[in-house]
Amino acid sequence: MKHIPVLIIGGSLVGLSASLFLSWRGVPNIVIEKHEGSALHPRAIGFTERTMEYFAAVGLGEKIPQVAPGTRLRRAVVESLAGRWIRETEWTPDSAVPSLGDRVTPHTGAAIAQDKLEPILRARSVELGSQLEQGTELISFEQDADGVTALVRSRRTGEERSIRAAYLVAADGASSAIRETLGIAREGVGYLRTIHSVLFRCPEAEHFLERGVQQFEIEQAGVRAFLTSYGDGRWALMRTDGQALNELELAPFIRACLGKDYAVDIITTGQWEMAGRIAEKYSMGRVFLAGDAAHQLPPTRGGFGANTGIDDVWNLAWKLAMVVDGKSDPALLDTYGAERRPIGWLRHQQTFARPDYAQWLKSPIAPQPLFSDIAMELGQLHRSAAVIGAADDLPPAADPGHWAGQPGVRAPYLEMTGPAGRLSTLDLVGRQFTLFAEASTWIEAAARVCAVTGVPIVAVQIGKDADVDSDQFRLRFGIASAGATLVRPDGIVGWRSVGGVPDAHAALSDALHQIASLHGV
To answer: How many structural domains comprise the chain?
Structure first.
């Protein structure tokens, strides 16, 4: 029987991201994926600024092209692509366009089809030590107090074998057999309708993208559909009126939506459920749900589907690494669901409060304050035992410019100059614990805590290790000159001391022990 610290079931976007993040943190893992490669019909295409921060951290910054600054996803209601364009629609009604003057991240997001992104993730994962087993399916699993035993089978040879893992990550999709086996229920708006789609090539239609609109709602007599471009000559057309598409109807349906008899090469057809379902638990024992297994959400202009799953496994990876390495008590893993499920539910509510999907509900959800995309990506609040001092009156999300380094939010982005040249806070956080402080007493305390606990802490003394306007630093981090901020390995502020304390070593040690559930607490 093969033994591995982490077994991942599902090798699509979220499973591959989990493997990549774990391997980057030095955690051996195996990915079991029943298919031989990526799905012929790509799904996700839009990847957010936060997702690109993760991918840049693990060495993929130059391999995934990003969109131009200021680019936003635009959608129009049209009779057909070549026909009358009726109006442009907004994702968040009446929301102000974020100012580009105050940068909150160096990344702009990426528009890359999932079937082109997944090979990049696979290659990097294998380079870092991941084991990917494609064409292999999970037959069954059992867990006990010490681990999980999974029975898997090769779809090519029929050979069955067992794998023993300390932990299992279920990234096996919305119909997750693992979640069902565990008996974890889901809540939300539920099933709304089945969407039938066709993927095709049509180079002649590419010039319509020159007006800056990438998505189109087709409204004409007898036809309701949604058309989007993958930016590489491929288009996905989805019938939204609840009717199926048979082969005889495909060509005339495509022509009706395009508005002209363009040459079309049909690649494949497919279907998916428009639904909203959030798992009531994100873990049970040694099994963790991630991606669609945890939260089934339709594709949105805000990227609330795939990106939420990638967020999940970025959050989970550092916690698994700490526990597998023996530094943290397994109680740290309880904070995964505590932090991620409220965010999954928030995204469910945000999705179905917006016009794109509110129109399909049988009854409207309770009125929701609508948060901007940048607030949802870079300004969400995390609450759990791994966050100290998140005040009760804080909102679940806010524009990053409205935060001031409060515990539970992403560490502020701030450009600096170091001994080797220009850098930013993003270059200093995201792998280990990072301490930011101006006073040397905190830097000395970090060295002592690191020596005693064995937990690496990158201690950054402002004015020495990093040169930045001190007033700006204090404003963005919400601390005084004598204060300090401790950032977790996932880039979330875990704790801060607004001002000085009598015993910096004791204060920092206590904070680290609580955030990381270090043994002995």
So the answer is: 2
326: alpha, beta or left? (left if phi > 0; alpha if psi -120 to 50): left
Residue-number span of the structural domain to which 19 is assigned: 2-66+108-186+277-358
User: What distance in Å separates the CA atoms of residue 27 and residue 22, rounded to the nearest whole number?
Assistant: 5
| pLDDT for 421 beyond 80 | yes
Say whether both 351 and 477 belong to one domain: no
The mean per-residue pLDDT over the stretch 362-371 comes to 91
Mean pLDDT confidence for 427-443 = 96
Q: Within 10 A of 143 (CB to CB), how many other CB atoms are there?
A: 17
**CATH classification at residue 328:** 3.50.50.60
H or E element: which one contains 116? helix 114-127
On whether residue 53 sits in a domain, the answer given is yes
DSSP state of 273: E
Q: Residue 99: its pLDDT value, please?
A: 47
User: Is 147 inside a domain boundary?
Assistant: yes
Residue 344 lies in a domain: yes
**What is the reported pLDDT for 65?**
92
- Given a cut of 70, is residue 457 above it in pLDDT? yes
Determine the Cα–Cα distance for residues 383 and 335; give it in Å rounded to an integer: 8
Say if residue 26 is in the same domain as residue 166: yes
Check whether residue 37 and residue 160 sit in a common domain.
yes
Residue where a domain stops, chosen among 314, 332, 358: 358
Co-location of 153 and 291 in the same domain: yes
Percent of the chain with pLDDT over 90: 86
**Tally of CB atoms within 10 A around 80:** 20
Are 31 and 15 in contact by the 8 Å Cβ rule? The answer is yes
> 403-426: string of b/e by CB count within 10 Å (b at 16+)?
bebbbbbbbbbbebebeeeebbbb
Is residue 334 within a helix (H) or strand (E), and if so which, with residue range?
A: helix 334-353
What's the pLDDT tens digit per position in 219-253? 999 889 999 999 889 999 999 887 888 778 899 99
In angstroms, rounded to a whole number, what is the distance separating the alpha carbons of residues 421 and 407? 29
CA 201, distance to chain mean position in Å, is 29
Q: Are 437 and 466 in contact (CB under 8 A)?
A: no
Q: What is the pLDDT of residue 101?
A: 46
**Element (DSSP H or E) covering residue 378:** helix 373-378
Q: Would 198 be classed as within a structural domain? A: no
CATH number of the domain bearing residue 434: 3.40.30.120
Strand partners, 437: 461, 484
Per-chain mean pLDDT for the chain: 94
Neighbours of 207 (CB within 10 A): 8
Helices (H), 157-267: 177-182, 247-258
Q: Look at the alpha carbons of 341, 131, 489, 326 in this order and tell me if their dihedral is positive or negative.
A: positive
Specify whether 292 is located in the same domain as 425. Answer: no
- Per-residue pLDDT, 102: 66
Query: Span 18-40, mean pLDDT?
Result: 95
Last residue of a domain, one of 324, 340, 358: 358
Task: Report the percent of the chain where pLDDT is more than 70.
Answer: 98
pLDDT at 100: 40
**Do 419 and 351 share a structural domain?**
no
